[in-house]
Amino acid sequence: YGADQIEAGSSSAPRSGLAGADGSRMEWTTVETADGAKLSVRLFKPAAPVEDAEDVAVVLVHPYTILGGVQGLLRGMAQGLAERGHRAVTFDMRGAGRSTGRASLTGSSEVRDVVAVCRWVADTLKPRAVLLVGSSAGAPIAGSAVDKVDQVVGYVSIGYPFGLLASILFGRHHDAILKSEKPKLFIMGTKDGFTSVKQLQNKLKSAAGRVDTHLIEGAGHFQMEGPAFDAQMVDLIVNFIKSLPK
């Protein structure tokens, strides 16, 4: 990986990787954070060039590192987004997978990782805009980064852990996303063990800006992280992008 290490915002080319059945490609590189963590990053590229108006790149933030969260969990979604014409980026947060550094218990240090990758995407890939997507504990971490990068135009949460116990760890992140004026979509299973539908609705009452919710009947928290839901998540994300102001 040493040869791949590039600073966030530098113009060094990522290394090419595997091709998808539709001609989409995966490349990988390393992005360095402001405090020196080196993050392993994968870029999933559509087979055909993207129309300027549709050129919204998607940065996906994986579940809780301490429970084994890594970027590989998001590969199905990232490939699906590339097949639908969007450049998608996954990465291992500090202390996960091939990334250096140490994971934090509350996800506070990992916000810097999300910011570094979003800035690298904005400066190097130069899309029209960036959409941030967070899965499980990746949702509060991504939510804290939304207003730290101007090019981020919206946010999608998959299974945001708003519940009482999870809030002990991630409660510090709630205000940032609830106060953000940027459009937000919260996707959750009705059988989520960390957050009840009522807890989600109560939290979102105070949210600023446009707030959409999509409830998946009968789905549990960890179930929605599995590959069986990838295609549905891709549909929801792509339709949300289409609804954003051009």
From TrEMBL:
User: Gene3D superfamilies given for it?
Assistant: alpha/beta hydrolase
Q: Where is this region: Disordered?
A: 1-24
InterPro entries cross-referenced by the UniProt entry? AB_hydrolase_fold, KANL3/Tex30_Abhydrolase
Q: Where is the KANL3/Tex30 alpha/beta hydrolase-like domain?
A: 74-221
Pfam family name, one: Abhydrolase_11
Q: What is this protein called?
A: KANL3/Tex30 alpha/beta hydrolase-like domain-containing protein
Lineage at the top is: Eukaryota, Viridiplantae, Streptophyta, Embryophyta, Tracheophyta
